[in-house]
Amino acid sequence: MRKIDLRFLGLCAIGSLFSGLLGFMIAAGNNVILDGHEHPKNPARSHLELGNLHPYSTNHEKKHDSPIHIGKNIAVPTIIAKLEKDPVSGFNLNLETSNFIFAPELSGLEHKNGMGHAHLYIDGQKIARLYGNWFHIIEIPKGAKTLEITLNSNDHRPFFLNNILISSIITVENEH
Length: 176
Fold this sequence. Notes:
By secondary structure, the chain is α+β, with helices and mostly antiparallel strands. It has two domains: 1-32; 50-171, Immunoglobulins (Immunoglobulin-like). 16% of the residues lie in helices and 32% in strands. The protein contains two helices and eleven strands, in the order ααβββββββββββ. The strands form three sheets. Strands 4, 5, 6, 8 and 11 form a five-stranded mixed sheet that branches. Strand 2 and strand 3 (91-98) form a beta hairpin. The longest helix has 24 residues, at 6-29. The chain is extended and about 70 Å long.
């Protein structure tokens, strides 16, 4: 049996670490959003009404469909989204919110009233999490009809008021 060289194992560990970091740096340099998971496509899903929610297979995914109903005596978060053509390339999405604070450092943690992040959907398919008021969209797929931006709690649950999702929907013009 050969004696294991500890220096070799150490170099392998260091090499693995730097390879992983290099991958993250390349992804960040190319504006890749490391969302951590994919959601199954479900074209039947409507984000507009609570009654159209569907079951997922894991507890995390179910949270996305377990709404947080805004109760009485709590300031109702609002969102208005505006899409503008970027002068260089793509589009700039601007989110105007009230009674809502973007809290990226709390993403995945417990719910706190009026705090969280937004989710961007194009034709019902989740594209990204948004952690601030501005987001650059490199390209909107040809034939896309709508962009929907929802307000979500830190634990990813969407905010609802009177069984209606708090969101902003932009109808995409055919000429994009």
